[in-house]
Amino acid sequence: MSRTLAILCGALLLALYVALGALQDQATELATAQADHRQASARADSLADTLRLQRELVAAAAALDTKHTKELDDAKADNDRLRAAVAAGQQRLRVNATCPATSSSGRVVDAGTAELTPQARQDYFALRDELALSRQMILGLQDYVGTVCLR
């Protein structure tokens, strides 16, 4: 009987040893799976934050573009209104100039107010358009750098 009890105890110990080994393997797999899950969750959170930031930057850039495009359109509209008013004779472009004496008697001949020639007038309005465009490009780039790039 003691021999049977010894064999039974030995078999029981062997079964416990095998079960403990299997349990330890499962615990190791569980720990590895939990670590993988934590890594995946951290990566997903990081990607979500990156996506959120990217969306914010795109929205900020779009808002800046809209703002400066509107300002440029307004400047061009003002320039077009001025061009139309000059063409209609409602306004005049004046040049700060002096007229040298042209008569032999030494008197200054009154020839009226100095104005731009029609070609110079076109060039003037083209320069105003380019100045408005350049100004909005510079302001837009400055806003973009300050709002989007340095963020």
Short description, anyone?
The protein is 79% helix and 0% strand.
- Indicate how many domains the architecture comprises: 1
Instruction: Kindly state the percentage of residues in helix.
Output: over 70%
Main structural class: mainly alpha
The description of the largest β-sheet is:
none
The string of secondary-structure elements, in order, is HH
Radius of gyration: 42 Å
What does this structure look like?
The protein has helices at residues 2-88, 118-149. With 151 residues, the chain is mainly alpha-helical. It has one domain (2-96, 114-149). Helix 1 runs antiparallel to helix 2. Helix content is 79%, strand content 0%. The longest helix has 87 residues, at 2-88. It starts with a helix and ends with a helix.
Spell out the blueprint of helices and strands.
Elements: H1 2-88, H2 118-149
Defining traits:
0% strand; 151 residues; 79% helix; mainly alpha; 2 helices
